[in-house]
């Protein structure tokens, strides 16, 4: 797939008239489907609102922070992630069957979908453009250290890297390592260190000094 | 199908370019294309495997030349035309020219949140006992169906180890054809990086895919 319309490269390939052609095509399609009675525009608005306001990485951040703060929850999360995530009231589409994989000093986990864009929506929301892009999908399984470098992350040479290609309906969430120097921190404070990319495995959590 | 969507290990796409503070959608039409696709699945009567095939089943240049939501839009148009919900002429004209297909009911606003929260679980009652156990060594079959499959090319013919048994799940290769769910046991199969990429590969790497039993043979 080519770059996104916010991507400079894409702007060179497609001028604005072509972009507006797509806009018009989608608008016309929605009118046809509404006129035929196949869709209710209010339902479309609600769907968009759900994915822009309710379903996003803040959900996964809560899961990770709770796992860091509560060892029993961590154990439940690693044993049956779908049930443990449902305890926090997150469930459903593209997260029906969850597995949480834990980073350790010995092993770093990274998640990809080489075939399309599978991603755990209830905990991370819709995937970012880079996750769906050809560079990530092609290289994550062959050269994950190179991909990490694109994100400015360097792991020790001895750390094993485990890449999970989401080829079925199992969805993976990475449990990053709790940063040192956070002993006694509350769940809320720990949550400030968790980033979306650290839950995909293309990033690391913030260090105590970095939190906003 | 062996299409451009099956990207694992393909070279030449360049670096990954993360976008700081990326919005969920980048244009209003993306919002609408996303919502239309999600909202049409149930009234349209197709499943997720049919949707995936409708997006990937196109010439490589077309697949690679479209942005993500352009692919969704193209897939949606295909699925609707195939089922006689709209005609190609209507899409090109941008207006309704033919009557609606009878009996197609839209998703009601009050059903949106419950439907998303329910999702579409794919685990089913096992029709037969599992053939493999954790720790078993398996070889991935070297298959090249022209229809939909979720067995990526880069693991075909390779030796891996069964790591997790996920239970019995709807089998996309059959479900995408509208021939029933045909559930099969699903496993996480782990491969050494060197098995996949040869001795030039990263020795610290291992990769797993989730694979249904019909993709596997005992090594």
Explain this structure to me?
The complex is a heterodimer of chains A (212) and B (219). Chain A is built from twelve helices and four strands. In chain A, the strands form two sheets. In chain A, strands 1-4 form a two-stranded parallel ribbon. In chain A, strands 2-3 form a two-stranded parallel sheet. By secondary structure, chain A is mainly alpha-helical. The two termini of chain A are 35 Å apart. In chain A, helix 4 (57-69) crosses helix 5 and helix 5 (71-79) crosses helix 6. Chain A folds into two domains: 11-52; 56-210, Nitrile hydratase alpha /Thiocyanate hydrolase gamma (Nitrile Hydratase, Chain A), CATH 3.90.330. Helix content of chain B is 33%, strand content 17%. Chain B is built from eight helices and six strands; from the N terminus they run ααααααβββαβαββ. Chain B has helices at residues 28-44, 48-56, 60-65, 68-82, 88-93, 109-118, 172-175, 193-197, and strands at residues 123-124, 137-140, 159-169, 184-192, 205-212, 216-218. The longest helix of chain B has 17 residues, at 28-44. Chain B is globular, with a radius of gyration of 20 Å. The chains are: A mainly alpha (212), B alpha+beta (219). The interface between A and B is large, with 88 and 99 residues.
Question: What is the chain-wise order of helices and strands of chain A?
Answer: HHHHHHEEHHHHEEHH
Oligomer: heterodimer
Structural class determined from secondary elements of chain A: mainly alpha
CATH topology of the largest domain in chain A: Nitrile Hydratase, Chain A
CATH-derived architecture of the largest domain in chain B: Roll
**If strands are numbered along the chain, what order do they take across the biggest sheet of chain A?**
1-4
DSSP strand tally of chain B: 6
Low-confidence stretches of chain A: 3-14
CATH topology of the largest domain in chain B: SH3 type barrels
**Biggest β-sheet strands, sense, barrel of chain A:** 2 strands, parallel
Residue share in β-strands of chain A = 5-15%
């Amino acid at each position: 797939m080519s770059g996104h319309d916010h991507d400079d490269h894409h702007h060179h390939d497609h001028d604005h008239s072509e972009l507006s052609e797509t806009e018009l095509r989608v608008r016309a399609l929605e009118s046809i489907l509404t006129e035929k009675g196949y869709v209710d525009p209010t339902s479309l608005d609600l769907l968009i609102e759900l994915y822009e306001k309710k379903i996003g990485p803040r959900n996964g951040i809560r899961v990770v922070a709770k796992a860091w703060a509560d060892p029993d929850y961590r154990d439940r999360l690693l044993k049956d992630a779908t049930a443990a995530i449902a305890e926090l009231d997150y469930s459903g589409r593209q997260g029906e069957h969850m597995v949480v994989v834990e980073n350790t000093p010995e092993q770093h986990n990274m998640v990809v979908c080489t075939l399309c864009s599978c991603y755990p929506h209830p905990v991370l929301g819709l995937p970012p453009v880079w996750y769906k892009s050809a560079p990530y999908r092609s290289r994550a399984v062959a050269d994950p250290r190179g991909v990490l470098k694109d994100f400015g992350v360097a792991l020790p040479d001895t750390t094993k890297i485990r890449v999970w290609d989401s080829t079925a309906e199992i969805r993976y969430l990475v449990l990053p390592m709790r940063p040192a120097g956070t002993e006694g921190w509350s769940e809320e404070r720990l949550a400030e260190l968790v980033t979306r990319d650290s839950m995909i495995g293309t990033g690391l959590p913030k260090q105590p000094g970095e939190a906003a | 199908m062996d299409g451009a969507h099956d990207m694992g290990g393909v070279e030449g796409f360049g670096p990954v370019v993360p976008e700081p503070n990326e919005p969920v959608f980048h244009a209003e039409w993306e919002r609408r294309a996303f919502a239309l696709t999600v909202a049409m699945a149930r009234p349209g009567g197709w499943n997720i495997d049919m949707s995936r095939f409708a997006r990937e089943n196109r010439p490589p240049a077309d697949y690679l030349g479209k942005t993500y939501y352009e692919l969704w839009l193209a897939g949606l148009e295909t699925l609707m035309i195939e089922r006689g919900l709209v005609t190609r002429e209507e899409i090109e004209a941008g207006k309704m020219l033919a009557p609606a297909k009878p009996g197609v009911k839209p998703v009601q606003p009050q059903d949106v949140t419950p439907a998303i929260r329910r999702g579409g679980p794919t685990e089913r009652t096992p029709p037969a006992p599992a053939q493999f156990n954790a720790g078993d060594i398996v070889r991935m079959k070297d298959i090249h169906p022209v229809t939909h499959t979720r067995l990526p090319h880069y693991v075909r013919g390779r030796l891996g180890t069964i790591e997790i048994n996920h239970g019995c799940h709807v089998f996309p290769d059959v479900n995408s054809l509208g021939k029933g769910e045909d559930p099969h046991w699903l496993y996480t199969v782990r491969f050494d990086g060197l098995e996949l990429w040869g001795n030039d590969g990263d020795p610290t790497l291992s990769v797993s895919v989730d694979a249904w039993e019909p993709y596997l043979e005992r090594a």
